[in-house]
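Q: Given only this backbone (220 positions), what sequence would you predict?
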């Protein structure tokens, strides 16, 4: 399946990049950002591997990487501002278990990830595209879920959060069926249970928006 630019989940502008982010992008890009299929597979092969889709400022990615040196964390993000922030932290905390792909996560999964690759895929607060005419831009739809299923290892986990109830309700329905088993937070291993709130999540809590979580395990 391919998408035209109108139905992408992001708009093609880079936004403001701070001088610190620029410095980190210039200094550490080659060390942490990968794009070739062979480099990506080489990085995730063999270890417990986790993909963070749309990591934003990378708070979750960095937190898991700091506490779990034995996990290979791949982050997919389209905007370089967030990548700059992660590169700066990866250098500061000497994180060797992070790699970044600066690409549309859907293209990444389709073209550069072999089937049965990830132990876990997380997707926290993807852009909700609230207007009905924009719903086609939402990342999670039937085809995307089929893609997730293929790219997860057997028993692999998909962990999703949104503060947008109607998005959540639709996602909930899409995971019905024999390919997925619903889990609760308590069922997860420590590294997925012990994830601090990002600033995005804190803002949602502060604004009294509901936090909706979907956790599923691949069974087929
Ligand atoms: C609302 S932010 C959430 C950031 C972070 N996950 C958090 O919880 O704080 C959504 C992020 O998804 C990224 N994004 C949107 N579409 C994407 C895509 N197709 N592939 C990769 N990243 C994407 C956006 O650039 C943005 O940084």
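A: Predicted residues:
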């Amino acid at each position: 399946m391919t998408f035209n630019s109108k139905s992408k989940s992001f708009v093609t502008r880079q936004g403001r990049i701070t001088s610190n982010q620029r410095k980190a992008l210039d200094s550490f890009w080659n060390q942490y950002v990968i794009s070739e299929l062979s480099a990506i597979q080489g990085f995730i092969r063999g270890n417990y591997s986790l993909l963070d889709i749309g990591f934003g400022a990378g708070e979750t990615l960095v937190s898991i990487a700091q506490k779990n040196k034995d996990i290979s964390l791949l982050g997919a993000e389209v905007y370089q501002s967030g990548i700059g922030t992660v590169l700066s932290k990866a250098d500061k905390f000497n994180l060797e278990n992070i790699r970044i792909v600066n690409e549309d996560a859907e293209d990444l999964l389709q073209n550069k990830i072999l089937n049965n690759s990830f132990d876990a895929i997380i997707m926290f607060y993807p852009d909700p595209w609230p207007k009905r005419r924009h719903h086609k831009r939402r990342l999670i739809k039937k085809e995307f879920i089929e893609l997730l299923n293929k790219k997860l290892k057997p028993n692999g986990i998909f962990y999703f959060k949104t503060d947008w109830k109607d998005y959540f309700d639709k996602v909930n329905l899409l995971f019905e069926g024999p390919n997925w088993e619903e889990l609760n937070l308590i069922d997860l291993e420590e590294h997925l249970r012990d994830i601090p709130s990002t600033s995005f999540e804190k803002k949602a809590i502060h604004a009294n928006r509901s936090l909706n979580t979907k956790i599923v395990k691949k069974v087929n």
